[in-house]
Design a protein that fits this description.
3 copies of one chain form a homotrimer. In chain A, strand 5 (128-131) and strand 6 (134-139) form a beta hairpin. The longest helix of chain A has 14 residues, at 58-71. In chain A, helix 2 (31-42) packs parallel to helix 6 and helix 5 crosses helix 6. Chain A is globular, with a radius of gyration of 16 Å. Chain A has a 6-stranded mixed β-sheet, sandwiched between helices. With 185 residues, chain A is of the alpha/beta class. Chain A has one domain (2-165): 3-Layer(aba) Sandwich (Molybdenum Cofactor Biosythetic Enzyme, Chain A), CATH 3.40.980.10. The first copy, chain A, has helices at 20-23, 31-42, 58-71, 91-98, 104-115, 143-153, 157-165; strands at residues 11-18, 47-54, 76-80, 101-102, 128-131, 134-139. Chains in contact: A-B, A-C, B-C. Chains A and B meet through helix 5 of A and strand 4, helix 5 and helix 7 of B.
Chain lengths: 185, 185, 185
C-alpha cells in the first residue's frame, strides 16, 4: 500500500460548519479553521479542504454531506457544531440519515475524552459513520473541544479511511502515530 | 437567564415507576421515593413531583411519559425499573418511542459508573432523550443503583434542561455544582 | 434455580464464523476454535457447540443466527468477524436485524477493553442483543482480541442468560466468578 501513494489522487477533506448564526454572517466561524489547523498538523501530505457553512437544518446539512461525499469525493468529512440536545441541534440526525454504516465507537470515545474536561460532555450526541468510501465525523463547535475530541480518535482515522476506501494517509509521525494492525484478518 | 428565575413557573418533575409487581400492589415501590429523596437533596428550589406507577407494558409506559411531558409540562421525567434484558423489560423501548432526540451519553455514562460496582451493569439498556421541552432519563430499580447513576450524570442535568427549555434549575451547591459552560457558542 | 440444574436440557451454544475467505476455504478459521476454547475454560458444565461458517452477506448471517436460535435452541450465539467499518463488514447489521432487544452495554464495554490494546478499537461496530430466549454477541475475528473482549464481558453473561431464559449456567469459579445480584427486584 505504501508504494501506491505517489499515484493516489490528491486527498480532499470536507469541513462542514453547522451554525445558524455563522451561516447568517452574525458570527465568525472558529470551528472550521480549528479543524483545518489540526489536520495540517497531523497529516503529512498535501490535501485540499472544501468548507461549507450551513444553518442548523437537517436537510441542508444532509445535502452538504452528500455533496462532499458523492460529488467532491472527500475521503473524510468532518462537521463542527449542532451536536447538543437543543431543538436546533440536528447535525447527528443528518449524519445518521446519510450514512450507510454508523460507528458508535467514535461518539463513545469522544464523549469519554470530553468528560475529563466537562461533565456536560454526556449531552453531546456526536456520532460518526461511513457513506460510500468516506468517513464522516461530528465534532463539537468550540476549538478547544475539537482538539480534545480529535486527540481522542485521530490515531484510528487513517486506518479507518484505508479500510473504507483503500486510500493510505501519510501522517506526521512526530505528532501522531497512525495505528495500523499488522494483519487485518 | 439567572434574572428570570423569580418569574419562572414552579418546577414539576415526573417520576414513573415501571414494575408489574408494584403496579399490582404486590410490592412496595422503593425506586420512586429514592429518586424523590435524591432530587430534594440536590435541587435548591421548591418543586412538585408527579408520580406514576405502571406495569411493564411498552404502550402504558409510553402513555405515562407523554402525559407527564405534554399535559403536565414536566421539565424532567425519570423512570425507575424495566431497563434489563428480560422479556418484560421495555422501559428504554417506550422512552425511545416518545423521544424526538436520544442522548446516548447518559446510558453510556450510567453503565460505566455502575460497572464500578457490578459487572452486570452492561446488561442495562437505560437511555435518555428529549421530548418537546423535557428531559427523560431511565434509572434502574434499586435505590442504591439509582444514587450511583444519578451521581454519575446529575452535574449535566441542569444545563441540559436549560438548553432544552430555557428553565434554569437552582441546585444545592454544597451537594453538586451544576456545570454550565461559560459560552455555548 | 440452582436445584433445577440436573433437569435442565443440555446447553447448546452457537458459534458463527463470518468471513468470505474462510467460507470459501481460502483461510483456516481461527476465531471459532478460539471461542470454543474460551468457553470450555470458563463454563463448568457439559455443552454442545454448533458451528456455522458463512460469507460476509447480511442475509446469510441473519439466517444462520435465526436457525441457531429458533431451531437449535441455543442459549448463547456468538459471532466472530465482520464487525469493522469496511463495506463487507455487516455482522452487526445482521445481528440488529434479528434481535428483539439490543444491549448496547456489550459493545461499549468491548470497545473500551480493546482500546487498552489498540486505538483502532473504536472502529468496531460489535453489538449484542436478545432474540427469543437467546443472547447474541458479536466478537472480533482475531483470537487475541476475542479473549480480551470475552474477559471484559463474561462475568455478566451467565446472569444475562438466566434473565432471558431461566437457564442457570455453571461456571468455573477458579476462572471467573459469574456475578449474580442478590435480589433482582
Amino acid at each position: 500500500m505504501s508504494a501506491a501513494i505517489d499515484f493516489q489522487a490528491k486527498l480532499t477533506i470536507g469541513i462542514v460548519t453547522v451554525s445558524d448564526r455563522a451561516s447568517r454572517g452574525e458570527y465568525v466561524d472558529a470551528g472550521g479553521p480549528a479543524i483545518e489547523d489540526y489536520l495540517r498538523e497531523v497529516l503529512d501530505e498535501p490535501f485540499e479542504t472544501l468548507c461549507r457553512m450551513v444553518p442548523d437544518e437537517v436537510e441542508v446539512i444532509a445535502s452538504a454531506l452528500i455533496e462532499l461525499v458523492d460529488q467532491a469525493d472527500c475521503r473524510l468529512v468532518v462537521t463542527t457544531g449542532g451536536t447538543g440536545p437543543a431543538v436546533r441541534d440536528v447535525t447527528p440526525d443528518a449524519t445518521e440519515m446519510v450514512c450507510e454504516k454508523l460507528l458508535p465507537g467514535f461518539g463513545e470515545r469522544m464523549r469519554q475524552v470530553s468528560l475529563q474536561y466537562v461533565p456536560t460532555a454526556i449531552l453531546s450526541r456526536q456520532t460518526a459513520g461511513v457513506r460510500s468510501r468516506s468517513l464522516l465525523i461530528n465534532l463539537p463547535g468550540q476549538p478547544k473541544a475539537i482538539s480534545q475530541c480529535l486527540d481522542g480518535v485521530f490515531a484510528a482515522i487513517p486506518y479507518a479511511i484505508e479500510l473504507i476506501s483503500g486510500r493510505f494517509l501519510q501522517t506526521n509521525q512526530k505528532r501522531f502515530v497512525a495505528f495500523r494492525p499488522k494483519s487485518t484478518k
